[in-house]
Amino acid sequence: MRYLLLTGLWLAFNFSNAQVRVSLNQRYLITTDGKPFFWLGDTAWELFHRLTREEAEEYLELRKQQGFNVIQAVALAEMNGLRQPNRYGDLPLIDEDPTRLATTPGANPANETEYDYWDHVDFIINRIAYKGMYVGLLPTWGDKVAHMWGDGPIVFTPANAEVYGATLAKRYANHWNIIWILGGDRPATYTFKAEGGEQEFDDRAVWRAMAKGIESVLGKEAFITYHPMGGTSSSEYFHTESWLDMNAFQSGHGDRETDVWNRVTQDLLLKPQKPTLDMEPCYEDHPVNPWDGKWTRATRGYFTAYDVRARIYRSVFAGACGVTYGHHQVWQFLNNALNPPINIGDTLIGWQKASKAEAAGQMQYLKRLMLSRPYFDGVNDQSLITGDKGSDYKDLVIATRHQDGLYAFIYLPQNKPVSIDLGKLSGAAKSVSWFDPRSGKILSGLSTTATGVTSFTPPKDGQDWVLIIDDASQNFPKP
Predict the structure, then answer these.
(1) What gap in Å lies between CA 201 and CA 149, rounded to an integer?
(2) How far apart are CA 121 and CA 268, in angstroms?
(3) Number of C-beta neighbours around residue 220 at 10 A
(4) Of 260, 303, 282, 245, which is closest to residue 393 (Cα–Cα)?
(5) Are residues 448 and 314 in the same domain?
(6) Which residues have CB under 8 Å from 91's CB, separation 6+?
(7) Predicted confidence (pLDDT) at residue 46 exceeds the cutoff of 60
(8) Both 144 and 181 in a single domain?
(9) Residue 367 and residue 138: Cα distance in Å, rounded?
(10) Domain containing 119 — which CATH number?
(11) Are 142 and 189 a contacting pair, CB within 8 Å?
């Protein structure tokens, strides 16, 4: 009851802060009062389905302390979400009909006849709001729509998707912290083997209808994006459609070689311009490509904290408006006593230990770094780097700078010297320092009046570093 009372007060007090918006330059996100919003998400797909109230509180408080501001979770969950009850024995739908939510009068958690599936969803969303975070709410996982892999069953049509979208929008119309995410790890158009051979499928009508239902209640106040399958972007299906406020892509877990920076660039070159981000990069401790039966620890191994940093920093420095982190045993809230592990290789960690993994605590440093300088004027500029820029996932150095040259951040995935053209930055004197992405600490550097191409050597310890070069006259603070 205490949770309900405090959450109610929070919602009443903060309703004026409703949702995020796209910045005027169409590349970044802002809050409704005009402040920069750097999307730092966490992947919590099974949150509503697999955790109790107490466990959800434990997880959310930790993510708040770790600096996350978007929690991505699915209303109709991926892992048998329509037929396996939540931790309180409740299912989300009556007769698997999206137009009939399984609700009961009352919401008292001490009374099992009152506290239904959607009361539990409400509780978690309210707790997220109380902690000052947003919900990246997926109305459904894509297996309830697409004729592909997954538990399913397929239950959506354009007609009931519109009703379902409107139903959820009405339920959460007074919540300031809802960001709508359609898709759920599926393409909108695809070829799939079905009875009689391969068939072409086009599910865009379903997703458009769901968006229409949401906007029929909330209008353009609803912030809507789309979470696609690995290797694809929402821009491939919906870029020009007015309901899609932000593109998202999934660089995924199939290999380390993904050139994530090119995906960002491709999305940002499209017209009309829309923000974009990697909504599912490689998960920490996810086996690299475990699906073909050939995975071993020795040959492929796991994505490490370094792998996560190397991909995420380069997507953000390429121009993404944020990123979503994920841990492979957290998204499924792995508790081996309750559910079998999914593609974990040979290592059982469990969600509670995994939620404190190395990279999970490091993501906040990236957010602090990006917000420590004038944010909306940042642009990717590879011409800052002279000489050897690198060429692929192992060594590509990537730079972002203020459009007028007031600062530059350069990410070095390998501990090697880098040459920078200081003539592209403003100020007679430059403040130079090194930022440690593992700890968020700044190593005091030097002040230089050098002009033209200058070489910088990172500290000896640590594989990856960020070089910060500021116009000294700006007196920017440490991140």
Answers:
(1) 14
(2) 34
(3) 11
(4) 260
(5) no
(6) 82, 83, 85, 102, 117
(7) yes
(8) yes
(9) 24
(10) 3.20.20.80
(11) no
